[in-house]
Design a protein that fits this description.
Blueprint: H1 5-24, H2 32-50, H3 54-58, H4 60-82, H5 91-102, H6 106-113, H7 117-144, H8 149-169, H9 175-178, H10 191-203, H11 213-228, H12 230-249, H13 255-291
């Protein structure tokens, strides 16, 4: 069973991060985040290459995608540790940029000026939708455009890993960690605000502010859905639009992070398309060589 382009990217990411850890903090190899994620990959790959059941062969790409999507939570948290190795946090520069553009801090003033419970819930709903949109899109493309599923999942999941590498090189923790209390706080007023805060308490870390991967991945997903599943694109569009504002409203990002997410999205997608074409070409050559 061949190694797909997606797994090639994941293994390259492992090599990069493991080398970084080896040079900067060997003790991190013993951490739970590192061990759980890497052992899961090793065990799943062994299972993947040894299992010959027809049901797994038919659903292998979907299983790959779901496993990797779950592991993203570990790799995201890990960037909060890795991004302290090479450079200092750039939050002062990001906050300065927002101040220069607006004359104030939008991540502080937005929720203060628009504090009504209904508006707040709308913002938190938009932010919460980010956690579900990729998962729903994966199942929709698998069901209705299975011929495009491999490249769709590659473009989306590889985007996460590209952004994670950027977060390691450009460390920024975001307003919710950078600003002092109570400026970095927003009260929970409803169901969706409580859900988001619960997720943040269990999985958020001082990392991944610049550029906003929330915006970057969402834009990439919209572009692909417009091409592959236009009905889902129309459903996602209002949630994605709300997300543009909600990332700043809940103090997850500076405005400049959102702008960088919008600008970086087409660049990351173009890069992923190029990598996908190259990896697919080499994979096909290997398969053809084995059959000759």
């Amino acid at each position: 069973m061949k190694l797909t382009p997606l797994w090639s990217v994941i293994l390259v990411y492992q090599v990069i991060t493991i080398l970084l850890i080896a040079f900067c903090d060997v003790a991190y190899f013993k951490s739970g985040t590192f061990l759980i994620s890497r052992l899961t990959i090793v065990m799943y790959l062994i299972f993947r290459f040894r299992l010959r059941a027809d049901i797994f062969k038919k659903n292998r790409l979907l299983t790959d995608t779901l496993i990797i999507y779950v592991l993203l939570a570990y790799f995201y948290v890990e960037t909060a540790h890795l991004n302290t190795f090479l450079f200092s946090k750039i939050d002062p520069l990001l906050a300065m940029a927002d101040q220069w553009i607006f004359g104030y801090q939008p991540s502080v003033m937005f929720s203060a000026k628009f504090s009504h419970v209904l508006f707040s819930e709308w913002m938190f709903l938009g932010y919460f939708s980010y956690y579900l949109m990729p998962l729903i899109a994966f199942f929709a493309i698998w069901k209705y455009r299975r011929d495009k599923f491999e490249e769709f999942s590659f473009f989306i999941l590889t985007a996460y890993f590209v952004y994670y590498l950027i977060f390691i090189l450009l460390p920024a923790e975001g307003p919710q960690f950078f600003f002092p209390e109570p400026l970095n706080q927003i009260s929970s007023q409803g169901v969706f605000s409580s859900l988001v805060k619960l997720i943040q308490q269990n999985g958020e870390a001082p990392t991944a502010a610049f550029p906003s991967s929330h915006i970057g991945v969402t834009v990439i997903m919209l572009v692909l859905l417009f091409k592959y599943k236009s009905k889902l694109f129309k459903i996602y569009l209002p949630f994605a639009t709300t997300l543009l504002f909600s990332t700043v409203y809940i103090k997850a990002h500076y405005f400049i992070d959102v702008l960088a997410g919008l600008i970086s999205a087409p660049l990351v997608l173009s890069f992923n398309k190029y990598i996908y074409q190259k990896l697919s070409f080499f994979s096909n050559r290997i398969i053809n060589a084995d059959t000759d």
